[in-house]
User: Which sequence fits this backbone?
């Protein structure tokens, strides 16, 4: 899943609750989110739960009765960012807003549990990703003078019937979560510990949420899960119990390819994206479904992590270099114009210069459209931390990462240049950051395209003739609105 590690402060938009459901009160909450799209999506669930309790959202931390930070543990730096934010909250609490409560949500809350309260005196509430329904009780506990913690992970919780309050969005693209947790146990990864067992959400509630988004004017959904290809609905419960069912019950189940088709059929004007695919689980049926529906975007984020099979084995990724390249071949064959992106980690335990070169050569073979690249950060209690040596020096990790980034920039430029002179269907998302006279949107392959504003507006689908590019964006002019 795309991991942005950036801050968004939320203002209330796109309220979806019935007014009658909202208790009369003027308490205010402020939410900041870090980490992956799933965290941003979860913050919308938190906002929904508390809106029903009479809270409204505020973009001003100084006015808030409760301040939440939704946290990420994926790398040490992500945790450090949150610690720094807590220092800022502390200063605001002392000088401007002594009444405010501070709640820590998300993956750091789950990882550190009540240790958080010892380490950060400012924090009043610690809540893990499966316990957000308990937030109103926890806030009451704090009002009664106690600190409050709930970090119980669930085998069932999917927040299926909660209508998220769409926060800080553009009113055009939305996230819809389809699975929670992860059963994969990649040796470097903290997510299985912070998010618990993998479970899938009822397809009916997913389709209903997408239908509502269409009614509310949304034009694109991104289906979210740590490993969307392992989506499996058979009436609820953990994925691992599927094998215990009778053949007849198993036959009635719905897999990811079937779910994708159901969502694509909600409306032809609704674009469908998804993240993240796992190379070991991505089957051809998903590729054929993407190829069949015009409104399922031709874009796959397929994290590889390393191009060397020995390192992949140590990472416990469940595939080899050859298997991965075979999946790329299948994508190219079934969806010829598919955008492909990756995640790569440099300097994992025992990685040699030769292993690193295998990563670079795999990149050469694929020529990704874009990628998210990181240097290895050891995480407490993971298999890698317990069993392997974090023996690649910081300098080497950094240098290898830079080589990976440089090569990716080169490839992105090559890929973008191939698009110059072609017409792309673009969903307009907003005004370009660089100039008010320009709009931006993305093509099916997820590449950003910038073009003159003229009379077009966010939410329109337009055809853009691409005339120029950088390694990050395509530039062009609208030829037609559709
Ligand atoms: N579920 C997704 C990934 C979620 S985490 C998947 O399996 O692809 C997003 C990315 O963060 C990962 O793909 C990986 O590249 C990176 N990452 C995870 N743990 C890391 C660690 N300990 N150090 C550095 N990067 C890490
Ligand atoms: Fe982490 Fe692997 Fe699960 Fe992704 S698939 S969340 S990298 S354990
Ligand atoms: Fe996401 Fe970070 Fe948790 S990437 S699942 S918020 S550890």
Assistant:
């Amino acid at each position: 899943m795309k991991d942005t590690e950036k801050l968004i402060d939320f203002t209330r938009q796109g309220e979806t609750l019935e007014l009658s459901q909202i208790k009369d009160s003027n308490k205010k909450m402020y939410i900041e989110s870090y980490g992956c799209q799933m965290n941003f999506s979860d913050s919308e669930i938190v906002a929904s739960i508390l809106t029903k309790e009479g809270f409204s959202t505020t973009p001003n931390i100084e006015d808030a009765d409760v301040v939440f930070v939704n946290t990420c543990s994926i790398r040490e730096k992500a945790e450090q960012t949150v610690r720094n934010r807590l220092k800022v909250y502390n200063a605001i609490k002392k000088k401007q807003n002594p009444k405010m409560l501070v709640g820590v949500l998300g993956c750091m809350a789950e990882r550190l549990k009540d240790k958080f309260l010892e380490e950060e005196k400012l924090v009043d509430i610690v809540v893990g990703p499966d316990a957000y329904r308990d937030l109103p009780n926890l806030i009451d506990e704090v009002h009664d003078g106690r600190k409050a913690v709930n970090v119980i992970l669930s085998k069932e919780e999917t927040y299926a019937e909660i209508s998220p309050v769409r926060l800080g969005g553009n009113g055009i693209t939305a996230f819809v979560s389809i699975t929670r947790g992860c059963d994969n146990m990649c040796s470097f990864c903290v997510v299985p510990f912070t998010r618990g067992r993998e479970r899938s959400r009822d397809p009916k509630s997913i389709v209903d949420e997408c239908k509502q988004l269409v009614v509310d004017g949304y034009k694109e959904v991104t289906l979210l899960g740590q490993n969307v290809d392992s989506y499996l609905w058979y009436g609820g419960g953990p994925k691992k119990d599927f094998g215990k069912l009778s053949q007849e019950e198993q036959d009635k189940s719905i897999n990811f390819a079937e779910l994708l088709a159901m969502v694509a059929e909600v409306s032809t004007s609704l674009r469908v994206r998804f993240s993240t695919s796992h190379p070991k689980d991505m089957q051809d049926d998903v590729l054929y479904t993407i190829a069949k529906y015009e409104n399922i975007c031709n874009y796959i984020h397929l994290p590889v992590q390393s191009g060397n099979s020995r390192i992949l084995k140590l990472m416990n990724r469940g595939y080899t270099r050859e298997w991965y390249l075979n999946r790329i071949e299948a994508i190219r064959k079934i969806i010829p114009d598919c955008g492909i992106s990756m995640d790569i980690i440099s300097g994992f335990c025992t990685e040699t210069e030769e292993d690193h070169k295998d990563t670079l050569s795999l990149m050469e073979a694929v020529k990704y459209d874009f990628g998210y690249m990181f240097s290895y950060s050891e995480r407490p209690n993971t298999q890698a931390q317990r069993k392997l040596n974090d023996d690649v020096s910081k300098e080497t990790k950094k240098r290898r990462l830079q080589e990976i980034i440089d090569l990716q920039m080169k490839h992105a430029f090559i890929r973008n240049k191939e698009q110059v002179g072609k017409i792309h269907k673009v969903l307009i998302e907003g005004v370009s950051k660089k100039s008010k006279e320009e709009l931006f949107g993305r093509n099916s392959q997820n590449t950003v395209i910038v073009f003159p504003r003229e009379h077009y507006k966010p939410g329109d689908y337009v055809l853009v003739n691409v005339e120029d590019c950088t390694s990050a964006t395509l530039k062009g002019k609208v030829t037609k609105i559709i």
Observations:
- Residues 22 and 205 are 22 Å apart (CA to CA).
- The pocket of FE3-S4 cluster (ligand 3) is lined by residues 3, 35-36, 38-39, 72-74, 106-107, 190-191, 194-195 (CB under 6 Å).
- The radius of gyration is 23 Å.
